[in-house]
Amino acid sequence: MKVSIEINGTTVSEEVEDRTLLVHFVREQAGLTATNIGCDTTSCGACTVLLDGESVKSCTVLAAQADGHAVTTLEGLHGDEGDLHPLQRAFREEHGLQCGFCTPGMIMASVSLLEGNPKPTRQEVRDGLEGNLCRCTGYHNIVNAVMNASGQEVQR
Amino acid sequence: MSIVGTRVVRIEDHQLITRGGTYVEDLRVEALTGAVHAMFVRSPVAHARVTVDASAALDAPGVVAVYTAADLDLAPHKAGPVVEPWLADGVVRYVGEPVALVLTEERYQLADAAELVDVDYDPLDVVASIDAALTGETVLFPDQGTNVLQAGDGEFDDAAFAGCEVVLSHTILNQRVAPAPLEVRGAACAWGEDGRLTLWLSTQNAQISRATVAKGLGVEAADVRVVTPDVGGGFGAKIGTDPESVVLGWASKRSGRAIRWVETRSENLVSMTHGRAQQNTVTIGGRRDGTVLAFRLEVVQDAGAYPRTMFLPTLTELMATGVYHFPKVETSNRAVVTNTTPIAAYRGAGRPEATAAIERAMDLFAAEIGMDPAEVRRVNFIRPDEFPYSSPTGATYDTGEYAKALDQVLEAAGYADLRAEQARRREAGDPVALGLGLATYVEITGGDSGGESGKITVNPDGSVTAWTGSSPHGQGLDSTLAMLLSDQLGVPMDRITIRHGDTDEVPRAIGTFGSRSLQLGGSALRQAADQVIEQARALAADRLEASPDDLELSEGVFGVRGAPASGGVTWAQIAEQTDLTADVWFGDGSPTFPFGAHLAVVEVDTLTGKVVLKRIIACDDAGPVVNPLAFQGQRHGGLGQGAAQALLEVMNYDADGNPTTATLADYSFISAPELPDFELVDSETPTTRNLLGVKGIGEAATIGSTPAVHNAVVDALSHLGVRHLDMPTTPLRVWQALTEARKAN
Q1: ipTM of this complex
Q2: CB B473 to CB A31 under 8 A?
Q3: Do B21 and A43 make contact, defined as CB atoms within 8 angstroms?
Q4: B575 and B613 share a domain?
Q5: Single pTM value for the model
Q6: A92 partner at 20 to 30 Å CA-CA among A37, B50, B545, B589?
């Protein structure tokens, strides 16, 4: 079937198998490889993207379901090189990443989190990121990154 | 001003936060154009005779090839004393063992074709646990005649415990866990027209992988190039080169096609090596004043189906006595094979198991004599004036301040107040019990008796390129090494490039594991930079018509000391005139011994068994800190992963050897709401065993946190009659322990 999805402002139209997952469409058809696959049970969140502004795990959405909709991935979050999204900047400043594999999904989930709750408490950040797993950081600095991006105090 | 010791944001991060890393599955290099996709068909049963019929699969859409053991013409390879087949050859011995390899043109054709590989499994009796292995009723490798494939039996003499007022013994399970880095295993490979194999591999050490793959394929090491792209975590499980890499290299040659392979998470959980899996029996004896007089540790390692890594129980024995001086010590180790996934290194690899055993034993002893666990530890610590300390099991500790680390943590935590709060709750009959758990630890880092390579070139424009044999996968080592070199050479960090993980660029190296990278890889670059400075100094002296001894290097300029008016010579001026390169190998194999103290505070709901980790206060002393940002990050990660073992994580098998935790829906990674903010206490005790005075920090916090959290849960229940329960301290297990204790009372 033919699928057309606006990804980071550019429409990508490709003929794909019906069963093609959105995450594979993003990675293979659109060639955007920041979005990662970490599990096969929608448990880890590494593949989180925004679908019409809402965070979804793109391994549990068919490309066909996103047909005609807009997707934002990590690569679409920032403008020029010097123009980082506040969360991208904050993840770097607070050392909110180590191996970086969960990071694209973690940042996209955080964008969605702050959209709904611009000044979360630390516990609200933790609860909001429950569906995104990180094996490296122990989450402490990820919480700091979200607090930093929301203009709040961090605990170094 | 020196940037060493200051918080420097990582140079690695820009790419990772803007376009994501380039992990092996992201590679879009020309050599992989048109690559076929690979999937291993894996055994769904734990022990069986197998016959494989690939004919139906060969006719499936897009199938390029299906290979089985019958196709492979590779020499057999050994795992310990037995042969581990590249693909199951007549018998499978664990769920997840590779049976066949399927290659297809398109990714989505893989699973369809794999389904059509017809494998007949004729079940055999299963050995699914250490206990089952020790009975010997079923022997996995009949040629061996036993399931015990390694035995280092110590001399045991009960007279060691004569004179003790108290002696107690307990068997402590250190459960099997899955390292499960977020990026699963993956590889890509292609043979070039020059007859060389290039293997892109998610590994912690490209050079050892090259050696293993070349040996497996029966070719010269020079015929293999291993390239490590970004690696999404390893935690020790990517040290080894698994049989899959060799099979892929072989299949690429046989099929004449480039290959891409990435496993699924469920495959990863059953077929990447697991960690821990020890059953440790401790016997501890001493006086009622808290003095421990004798300690015995009997280690039984579950090696899994193939004994790939036999150093783990030996390392546990080596670190058996931890931070304590005990007059009499006895240890033994055995490793058994079972019908489960092979065991190998996982963050700490043998040392967490030793620490868990001794720290649980100290708490059991403290409870028996009615003394505070902190006090019992203090009585038995090795004192600062006893270093270097030769342990009874053969380790020589470099430096340590064990009592100081404990005292700092107790003070930062407000230990006395916490104990008072605990007493108050108990008196009031509060159903939510407070538990305080201590662990003091020492571990061994860089203990593999190998060194590391380092090479530096100053480019004609004055920029610097450095090649390290270390192979980071999230540790931020590029930044740390660039900081060291910037400091030493006076060259800004953005003019320094750190390269690693390509065997054509760095042919000789050992890699990243055992918390060795900074102390060995960092020292190697320090030494190489020293040599480059000496080369440059001589040339600069010529130009300045001064004695080399009178020159000083300041902010990248060689000038005459005390004579600024005489001008200076820059790195670029020297490097455009001559080649400035130094290539060194650092290390005599002397390990270092980081140490620390952790205190965990938990709340346990005694009605439901639910455990909440409220606080964790940690002192981890690894000597001087180069980059506090990366140092703290490593500690945070270790605390999270260590606490997860105590609270949640376990890889379970049923009696038939079926894994029951084979997806992330069943296997519990710890998530953000389950962890508290970490409270770090700083301390720096240098070592004399390398050029930087540093010890490793990659595994330390994992080692301390697991027993601290474990001890805290037991402590919370101690007033209800619970002396011990095994990890993970899940609500069910806590509730069962309470129920049993209530019955006994």
Answers
A1: 0.98
A2: no
A3: no
A4: no
A5: 0.97
A6: A37
